[in-house]
Description:
Layout: E1 5-10, H1 14-25, E2 42-43, E3 46-47, E4 51-58, H2 68-71, E5 93-94, H3 122-128, E6 133-136, H4 143-156, E7 159-162, H5 172-181, E8 184-187, H6 196-209, E9 213-223, H7 226-230, H8 238-249, E10 258-265, E11 272-283, E12 287-298, H9 301-319, E13 324-325, H10 327-333, H11 343-355
Parallel strand pairs: 1-4, 1-6, 4-5, 6-7, 7-8, 8-13, 9-10
Antiparallel strand pairs: 2-3, 9-11, 11-12
Amino acid sequence: MTRKIRVFIAGLGNCASSIIQGLTYYENANSEDTIPGLMHVKFGDYHISDVEVVGAFEANSKKIGKDISKAILEPPNCTTIFAKVPKLGIDVLPGPISDGVAPHMRESFFAYDESKVKPVNLVDAMKEAKADVLVNFMPVGSHDATRIYAQAALDAGVAFANGIPEFIVSDKTWADKFEAAGIPVAGDDIKSQLGATILHRVLAKLSIDRGIHVDETYQLNVGGNTDFENMSREDRLTTKRISKTEAVTSIFPYDVPTRIGPSDYVPFLGDTKVCYLWLKGRNFGDNPVNIQLKLDVTDSPNSAGVMIDVIRALKIAQDRNIAGPLISMSSYAFKHPPVQIPDFESKEKVEAYIRGEIER
Length: 360
Ligand SMILES: NC(=O)c1ccc[n+]([C@@H]2O[C@H](COP(=O)([O-])OP(=O)(O)OC[C@H]3O[C@@H](n4cnc5c(N)ncnc54)[C@H](O)[C@@H]3O)[C@@H](O)[C@H]2O)c1
């Protein structure tokens, strides 16, 4: 008999909203159905309806104190509403702000006044809610805040899914801490279902497999949500650039000049993300091959199904007493995993992991 997977989320923004709506939207899905964006309706022993959000930490004064079902509708969240989430009976808690809110984002995020509001004790809150998994969905650049939440997961004995480009699972010191504590982790920086990174990786791999010599490539991304507003300052997006760039350069067996990353904030795009991809190469006789591609996608739901699979992979690890980084799931589902594995191979490995044929 399986039990529910109790999830806490740090950062109840657009990505969290898409996950929570998806849990309502698909709660009665037939186990044999195919759901866009999920590997399986029933992942191992866990049906999508076994995932339960039991708490959320926030910095936004408009979200704190509200039921999670209402808080996901508060500004600046702007993603599509595709499900009416019933009242969950769980109020959003104030978490430590630390560097989660950049100076240029204090107004956009309606950051609470730290002289008036005291953040809750993260460990106590997660223990009280009997959380199994903590998902990190704070803004890019939350270096210190991520480490505060990761340490809290360690102290509370909760598995950690790191959705953002802060290097925890791919950092040996942190990975070892989780391994030593007997806690599974997956990360870093969630890879969307069909986003710029996977498209770029597939085009790079195809070019190499077909013997094209790639001379240069870029991937420019624009969007209008707070993720893009936050990253409109270059100092905020250093790790995002590293994560997105390494996800592509790791495919090439030689050095290729690249420019890859978030490129501008266009407010009226809302939660639409537009990616412009360019790849210039040579085929037989050094003749030119140029690929130009434009992807237009609703940003936040694009990673929601992937994270729901990650949550279930972490719960399976807990059931099997597996600690430390989940290698196959991290490679399949994240841009900056501890080990980069080609995408089709990592998918097969995750299937083998679900069946219990490989440990991690
Ligand atoms: N497809 C995708 O959308 C995608 C893919 C890969 C990575 N990510 C990453 O996931 C993260 C979340 O994305 P999003 O679009 O939901 O962003 P968002 O801006 O909508 O949400 C971030 C939330 O974190 C909250 N926050 C800020 N500081 C906090 C703190 N100290 N404690 C708790 N909450 C805090 C903000 O108030 C906000 O609600 C971002 O880092 C993004 O880059 C998203």
